[in-house]
Prior knowledge:
alpha/beta; Rossmann fold; 5 helices; 7 strands; binds guanosine-5'-triphosphate; binds magnesium ion
Amino acid sequence: xxxxxxxxxxxxxxxxxxxxxxxxxxxxxxxxxxxxxxxxxxxxxxxxxxxxxxxxxxxxxxxxxxxxxxxxxxxxxxxxxxxxxxxxxxxxxxxxxxxxxxxxxxxxxxxxxxxxxxxxxxxxxxxxxxxxxxxxxxxxxxxxxxxxxxxxxxxxxxxxxxxxxxxxxxxxxxxxxxxxxxxxxxxxxxxxxxxxxxxxxxxxxxxx
Length: 208
Ligand code: GTP
Ligand code: MG
């Protein structure tokens, strides 16, 4: 699959105001500054599409991007949505603002009917973080399909990245029956792009 066209559509604070749920939707979430917006830009080959920033807390709303893709098989959706979500665990905001963000994200994740998969981004430079583990446990409890995306792999030695990913799965293995699918990426080096796009293509076909 290749992305033919990617355009920014709209930003909302409320899932109810999001575009009509008439096509598959894929959302990107993870800690603030983990690289969500950069990954979306890498997938769409457009560095100006989603706003990125070296300062955490850049993305504050539910941002919809309209995608048009070419597929290998005629069957399947060729129009779908990518969604850039605000990061969790951003310390430098007021408690009340944080609660509002959390409620906005929870409502979106639990109620958005066309949401096919959530990509949870994890910074590959760090050992497993409690906040990420708690977030995916929450998704599991809510029965929301998700996969893991390890980001920024160009910033660390391959052995460190491998060790951190292995440590993450070691924790999951101790309590989970099924392990989530995962992707290893670098927005800087275009790593993991084909794998992510094939995954989305397969989903677009299997639900058509
Ligand atoms: P918020 O919207 O604030 O939650 O952040 P975000 O998760 O959207 O992160 P964003 O894409 O804005 O990236 C944060 C910083 O990390 C930026 O300075 C990016 O250039 C950098 N970055 C993101 N992905 C990569 C990567 O794969 N490699 C490297 N070297 N830098 C990256
Ligand atoms: Mg962002």
